[in-house]
C-alpha cells in the first residue's frame, strides 16, 4: 500500500498491516519521508502497549535511515524481563527495511524522597502564541509559545509546546508519546546553524526521565554545540508546569546546502 492516509486529527491511521502516515507525519527536510516527531512518537506508542506498571527511566531512538512516508510496521520485543528492570525494543520498518529502533529501560517504582529541579520559566500563558504557519498541514497539529530564542534564528532557545492531534488515530496521547515528540524538537528551537545554509536532521532521540510528564503543555530548553566536524549535539532540559521531568540529547547530521 502506498500514498498517504488523510485523517485530519492524527499523524498515523492504523491499518490491518500496520500504520499509514498522514501528511502531518512528513519530514520538514523531505516530505517523502517521515519526520523525527512521527518516528519517535509511533515507536513510543508501541512501547506504551507493553510498558505495564514500571517506570520508563530512559528512552533512546536510533534513526537508522530515512523512513518513507508509506505504510509502516512496528515490532516490539522484550529483551530483558525482571522484577526490578525491564528492557523493551521496538523497530519501525517500511518497504522491507528497518528505519528506526527504540530501546526503553524500565525500572520498578517505589516511594523514595523526591529530588526535582523547579520550573525555570513562567507558565505557557505568559508567552505569545507562535504556532506553526509555514506548513498548512501542521496548522492545528500543535501549539507553541516561545520563551526565548527563535525557531529560525541560530542560538539556544526554549519553548512551551502542546500537541493537539493524536499520534495514532483514535488513541489518546500518552505522557510518553508527548515527551518523545517534544524530544525531537531540540534541533529546531536550539539550532546553531542557519536553515538557509545547512541541513541538520537528527540521527537519534535520547531522553532520561525523572518521571513521566504531567499535562498537555510541555517545555523544552535546548542548546546545540558542534566542533565543526559535520555533527552537532543538542542538549535539552524538559519540564512541565510542575518542574523538570527529564533531560536529553540528540546527534545532528550537519551538511552544507
Quick structural overview:
The chain has helices at residues 36-48, 175-183, 186-189; strands at 10-14, 19-21, 55-63, 73-80, 85-94, 97-107, 142-148, 157-163, 166-168, 198-199, 204-209, 218-225, 231-240, 243-253, 255-256. It has 257 residues and is mainly β. A hairpin with a 4-residue loop joins strand 4 (73-80) and strand 5 (85-94).
Structure characterization notes:
With 257 residues, the protein is mainly beta. It has one domain: Acyl-CoA thioesterase, double hotdog domain (Porin, Beta Barrel). The chain has helices at 36-48, 175-183, 186-189, and strands at 10-14, 19-21, 55-63, 73-80, 85-94, 97-107, 142-148, 157-163, 166-168, 198-199, 204-209, 218-225, 231-240, 243-253, 255-256. The protein has a 10-stranded antiparallel β-sheet with strand order 4-5-6-3-11-14-13-12-8-7. A 3-stranded mixed β-sheet has the order 2-1-9. It has a two-stranded antiparallel sheet with strand order 10-15. The longest helix has 13 residues, at 36-48. It is globular and about 45 Å long.
Please outline the helices and strands.
Layout: E1 10-14, E2 19-21, H1 36-48, E3 55-63, E4 73-80, E5 85-94, E6 97-107, E7 142-148, E8 157-163, E9 166-168, H2 175-183, H3 186-189, E10 198-199, E11 204-209, E12 218-225, E13 231-240, E14 243-253, E15 255-256
Parallel strand pairs: 1-9
Antiparallel strand pairs: 1-2, 3-6, 3-11, 4-5, 5-6, 7-8, 8-12, 10-15, 11-14, 12-13, 13-14
Helix pairs in contact: 1-2
